[in-house]
Amino acid sequence: MPPLPRPQIFDILIIGAGPAGLNAALTCARTRTAALVFDSLAYRNEGVSHMHTVASRDHFNPREFGRIARSQIESRYDSVWFQQATITHAAKKNIGLGGGGGGSEGFEVEDSEGNAYQGKKLILATGSKDVLPEDIEGYKENWPQHIYQCLACDGYEQRGMPIGILGFDGPMYGHMVQMATAFDPPSMTIYSNGAISTGEPVQKALKLAKALGATLDERKITKLDNNGPSDTDGLTVHFEAGEPVTLGFLVHKPDTVNRAQHLIDQLGLETVDAAMGGHIKIVNPMFNETSVRGVFAAGDTMVMMKQVAIAMGEGLKAAAGAGVQLAQERAEGVLEEYELREQEKEKLEAVSY
């Protein structure tokens, strides 16, 4: 069977080529759905050398994972194409026939070079990005080798090393201390970088942390030194007063925002409350459909729990949802044409009598 030609109008446009976008692409490939995947080459896990909790790919380089996934799709299947581009604009509009009123409803996106692409459905697999604090010197230089936001993702390799918890502004940090106990640390210290909140939720979490063996250090931090490129080299914390401390790593969860918030705004997609993460709101969880018909979302941009394996599953759901919607619309068109032909056939038969 000859390969499918690259179309002018794709069935599905997939923005993002991380785990969610790649799995959405693979799902399209398996059903011979014409899809175009946009890869901006900007990833949340830039600088991370190993990903975890992915069966068969545990402690695997994420860039190599992406290379293999794309290679398998491109070498085995013929209905998915990849485009290196950063999408800057997205809009719902009539596509085909010059984009005028005679076309059909779909989407047009534009990249940073001014190139336009059209598709019947749109999947946002654009991910999220961490907003690193700028008030602590050396934070960025230690991220992500020596500062971890998820102990389940990165704690195992540093087991047996002193652990520091940076900041303590919510109950979640009590959970971090609880998780840290599994890694046999010789010490667990909360570096709050100033006075800790006296609010009941924080104090309750702090009480739990102390019960688990953690100590509290409220000194103001002036600088973080990177002790080496390896994730086992650790870092040194300097304070306004007193001696510095060398640790295996710090645990801290910076704020996270949608990487493609501009596209979310342009498309008018609903999002959840900022306190719940601000990610895209899903109105049909089975198929990851958003508040705008024809737009689906996958991965970190639509879930609170941001993990590779979860993103992959959400990519499959989004592609399946877009595929089902396409099939339903095609079925409606086929039935309408069939009924028109039958009506014409009946008219001709009536005339012949």
Automatic annotation (TrEMBL):
Any one Pfam family match given in the protein's UniProt record, by short name: Pyr_redox_2
Instruction: Name the keywords, alphabetized.
Output: Flavoprotein, Oxidoreductase
Family annotation (SUPFAM superfamilies) = FAD/NAD(P)-binding domain
Database matches in Gene3D superfamilies = FAD/NAD(P)-binding domain
Q: Which GO terms describe its biological process?
A: cellular response to toxic substance
Q: Which residues form the FAD/NAD(P)-binding domain?
A: 10-165
Highest taxon, organism lineage: Eukaryota
Residues annotated as coiled-coil are: none
Any one Gene Ontology MF annotation carried by this entry is: oxidoreductase activity
The record's section on InterPro entries has: FAD/NAD-bd_sf, FAD/NAD-binding_dom, Ferredoxin-NADP_redctase_2
Give the similarity note. Belongs to the class-II pyridine nucleotide-disulfide oxidoreductase family.
For this entry, the protein name equals: FAD/NAD(P)-binding domain-containing protein
